[in-house]
């Protein structure tokens, strides 16, 4: 289960809307306690592809984010990206590029009036949804 604060959710939505029509992306740092994956910090990264259909994170920004996580005692919980005009589910490309089955992959859909955020575990190109609790 992902634990996310309401203001964190809002900041992801605002960042994704601000990057339209491109996909937005970032990393999630925090703690893992039992089955709970508690998000403490969101790292907004540049989509180097500048595409509405896929993303590539800037490697320098990724390294800086991980360095900051270590400084604060956080672990890498996972990443997020937006789908500007498609549902909140992993695309075939998302599944193909998901290399770590321990990571949480959050996808924010902006296709409807209200944004929809869902989280997935992906292993061997098979996705399973994990719950998100927004506090």
Automatic annotation (TrEMBL):
In terms of superkingdom, the source organism counts as Bacteria
- Which SUPFAM superfamilies does the annotation name? JAB1/MPN domain
Q: Name one Pfam family in it.
A: Prok-JAB
Transmembrane regions: none
According to its record, what are the GO cellular component terms? proteasome complex
Kindly state which keywords UniProt assigns to this record, in alphabetical order.
Answer: Hydrolase, Metal-binding, Metalloprotease, Protease, Proteasome, Zinc
Q: Where is the MPN domain?
A: 2-126
Q: Does the keyword Endoplasmic reticulum apply?
A: no
Q: What InterPro entries does the record point to?
A: JAB_dom_prok (IPR028090), JAMM/MPN+_dom (IPR000555), MPN (IPR037518), VirAsm_ModProt (IPR051929)
Check the record and name the PANTHER family matching this protein. CYSO-CYSTEINE PEPTIDASE
| UniProt name for this protein | Proteasome lid subunit RPN8/RPN11
């Amino acid at each position: 289960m992902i634990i996310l604060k309401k203001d964190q959710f809002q900041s992801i939505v605002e960042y994704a809307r601000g990057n339209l029509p491109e996909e937005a992306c970032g990393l999630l740092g925090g703690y893992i306690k039992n089955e709970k994956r508690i998000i403490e910090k969101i790292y907004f990264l540049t989509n180097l592809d500048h595409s509405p259909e896929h993303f590539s994170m800037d490697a320098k920004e990724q390294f800086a984010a991980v360095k900051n996580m270590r400084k604060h005692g956080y672990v890498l919980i996972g990443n997020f990206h937006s789908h500007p005009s498609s549902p909140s589910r992993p695309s075939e490309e998302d599944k193909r590029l998901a290399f770590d089955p321990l990571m949480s992959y959050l996808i924010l859909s902006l296709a409807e009036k209200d944004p929809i955020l869902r989280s997935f575990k992906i292993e061997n190109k098979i996705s399973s949804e994990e719950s998100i609790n927004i506090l």
